[in-house]
User: Fold this.
Amino acid sequence: MFTPPSVGGDGPGTTKGTIQAPGSTGGGNWTGAAFDPETGILYVPSRTNPFVADLVPGDPAQTNLTYRAGTRAIIPGPRGLPLLKPPYGRITAIDLKRGEHVWMVPNGDGPRNHPGLKGLNVGPLGGAVPSSAIATKTLLFATEADQITPRTPADAGGRKFKAIDKATGKTLWEIELEAGANGVPMTYVFQGKQYVVFAIGGTNHPAELVALALP
Assistant:
């Protein structure tokens, strides 16, 4: 249930750290989930982003800790592709009344355009980024996050916002934004019109709010 980091070192016989998968930046532990109280279905965005968790000696001039967190480097796989099989980011619908998975779909393209996959007809592989979702009475809305942290795999981010069929997981509509969404969407009604609002931004794009509604 808990895999602690190990003390890393550069000398012979020392460890390089502990491989954690999905990693403390992975799984479904950052952006929460969306719940439909009418159907009892929970929609969980999650990602698989393993890395090496290490501890290094603390600097007495900066801390009284004997050890502190190290670099926690991403683990490169063959040809720079992820080490584990896809999907690297996904949304899973879970029926809480029956304890069963209703469907699971990749969320985001992931590295499907990587040179190592050239010539292969692969579908969306899912992005290993902290995506989020919100359930309304009729639709599930889901985001893709951008390249926002040093531990996000290269080219893993996405910029799409989509409307998903809650019963099947099929994408019904999507739009590509100027940056990925790094906040959980919220929805409200004003003067008879429903809006969905979320924050976007990234390493190359200033933070801003986006509001969407039907005409």
The mean pLDDT is 88. The chain has no helices and 15 strands. The longest strand covers residues 193-202.
